[in-house]
User: What shape does this take?
Amino acid sequence: MTDLFFRVRQRDIAYIKFILEAYEGMNVMSTADNGKGIIKVSVMPGFEHDMDGLLEDMGKEIVMEKIPDAESN
Assistant: This one.
């Protein structure tokens, strides 16, 4: 499983989770730090390419700053 971390606006967290849940089996999203607006997207093996495309498309609508996992702590 590949873990990706993003800084997003707090108000967008529920919307992002709603979208990602529609792709059941491809990923699991959790909030790493609600106060900082940091989410973790765990991508299941074999879906990395598909998720890259989905996250890129979502980034056109929602501000999603990819961050290293060290910043999530």
About this structure: The chain has a mean pLDDT of 93. The first helix runs from residue 13 to 21. The chain has one domain: 2-67.
